[in-house]
Amino acid sequence: MxxxxxxxxxxxxxxxxxxxxxxxxxxEQAVRQMEKTTPQEVTYVDEEAINQETSTxxxxxxxxxxVAEDTVQRELYLLDKNGLVVPQTVTLPKNVEVAxxxxxxxxDGGPITEMLPNGFRAVLPAGTMINGINLKDGTIxxxxxxxxxxxxxxxxxxxxxxxxxxxTQFENINKVKxxxxxxxxxxMPVNGTPINEGTSRANGINFDNGDVVDVVNSKAVTxxxxxxxxxxxxxxxxxxxxxxxxNNSYAAAVKELIKGPNAASGLYTELHDDIALLEEPTYxxxxxxxxxxxxxLSSLQGTALSQNILNELVFSLTxxxxxxxxxxxxxxxxxxxxxxxxxISAPVSRPKSVNTGSF
Length: 359
Prior knowledge:
Layout: H1 27-34, E1 59-62, E2 65-68, E3 71-79, E4 85-93, H2 98-104, E5 130-136, E6 139-144, H3 156-167, E7 175-180, E8 183-184, E9 207-208, E10 218-229, E11 232-243, H4 249-259, E12 282-284, E13 287-292, E14 304-305, H5 307-317, E15 325-330, E16 336-338, E17 343-344, E18 348-349
Parallel strand pairs: 6-7, 9-11, 13-15, 14-16
Antiparallel strand pairs: 1-2, 3-4, 5-6, 7-8, 10-11, 12-13, 15-18, 16-17
Signal peptide: 1-26
Pfam families: Germane (PF10646)
Keywords: Signal
């Protein structure tokens, strides 16, 4: 049974155990198909998977108790105009097969088509069918139809990331394995990206190695930068490697946000070089406290904290294990005003969903 993260509400599905043998293949032909690609080296990050919050299901209280409405919000990972894997929160019809439904909305030409904002596209090849799903001990095995193989090699890692992040929004899913017509895949079918025992959020998303080239002596952080499509601003997760010897991972994340995204990524950040931490960030009971100089305040208003800066910080820091919220101080002062004129007097938790309102 699947649960939605931190929603306080259980959503159950039927776990399908479908192992299709001989479908569209047979005998030696199937063996040749399984062996046609060879593994290629790929950089995998070594951080533990971070649970991603998703939106809660809306409910009505009727005479017979709590009754779920006929729609629910899900996070789907799509490709933006820069080819980056981006979460978008979508309202979908209520369906007991939540994992299968989420994947079906990733298919090009499928039900997502009329919902796509300008500049975004679905990640799975047109015509891809979900033959079956089996969940056991936190690992979900998805059996795709033969059409799954019809993608360009340069999209392979993006497809794997989108599938993994979309499915791991459900609390009981930690790892993803892939079959094609009932045959286990140890590698992706086109470019040979290793799958091995499955992929998780620990493998990262939208890789940017930054200034670090030594994978062994580095560690990964996931940062959220800003993307722009017309008037629509959205947040994009980027996994970057930093020096393994960074003593304070929270300070390191802030430093990387200020450094900004790769110039060729098409992303940007509102954090700038005038922003500085006045002391090392501290952690207590799930809360990271950051004490900034006045440089973090809006250059236009001089006294307000930009909502985009706040979101970049909260999204990025809550990706780190155990962090549930972020407290912001300015020169030691705990009462901070946001750009709407409201006081931020308590730690800010990660929103239930990323990039809402785009659909």
